[in-house]
Model the fold of this input.
Amino acid sequence: MEENGNGNEIKTEVKTESAAQRRAKRAKKKKIIWFAVLICFTAFLVYYFIPKKKKAVELPPITVQKETAKNQIQISGYIEAAREQKFQSPGEGIVEKVNVKEGDTVKEGQLLFALDTAYQEVQLAKHEFSMEKEKINGASYALRLMEKEKALFEKQLKDRSVYAKFDGVVAALNLDKGQYAKAQDNFGILIDRSYFKATVEVSESDAFRLAVGKKVLLNFSAVPGVSVEGEVTAYPSIARLNAQRGNTVLDVKIVVKNPPEGILPGYSFSGTIIAGEDEEILIAEQSAVRYEEGKPFVDKINENGKTESVQVEISPYTRGFIKFLSGVKEGDSLVNHGSTGIKDFDW
Done:
């Protein structure tokens, strides 16, 4: 190695080249590290955020079952008397007569009670006296007017008495002779027990099964073990929304003729409208059905374990179950599609 400027230059050049190599190695190493970090981060995103295919769970098969469907409509409500008449005071005054007591059976037109009529009798007598004086003058327009006024006084006199508007039973009475009454005061009630009536709500989905004359069976919690028979008498041609329950209903009127003595107006009941004959039907869980282009299918499992796709006709039954109209028979084993095959019905 020469000790001149050329040797120093050669030594300096070697050191400079070695430093560049080290910088290049460090840069390459950083790139490798960042690349590895990027791969790990990508793998993390893929694992946690891309949906993973769930492992298929084999559900137990579903068996088609036969059931007797009761063609009935469930109802509930409160029974009412055919007619009611309140023991309402026709005016103000002293009660002069009370001709009935609680529990009495009365006839239409029978006097129930009456207020004192002394004032009205005096007014009528004065008017009749005035008419007699007017008659001395002979027939006149004033006399004809007084005759009309007399009819009004007689009506006011009669209106101080209360009569039964129909044959019935005094269901409640709190009135005594000598009691002071004010106009429109209520002292009791007269009911017509010749028949009882009720208005019940029927869902719009059961409307097609309604008909006037359908038999009704009622059970009263106040009289256990007693089943009372009635019938449907009317229902409207327009439905209404039950705001409390959020469903559409029809108000159906029913009547119970010759109700048992133990049944009283106001009693609550539950019961059924017998809409038709009982029916043998085939049912299964709703998850046995799958849909292709909107049409229902089931997959029958044969004896050898193979499945056969069959198109079926169905209709809603109870929640979670469907009724088969065609395509299957009792005892058929069907593939359970779980929630993937279910098409919700509008219950």
In short: Residues 5-49 form the longest helix (45 residues). Helices lie at 5-49, 118-135, 141-158. The chain has three helices and 23 strands. The CA atoms of residues 43 and 49 lie 10 Å apart.
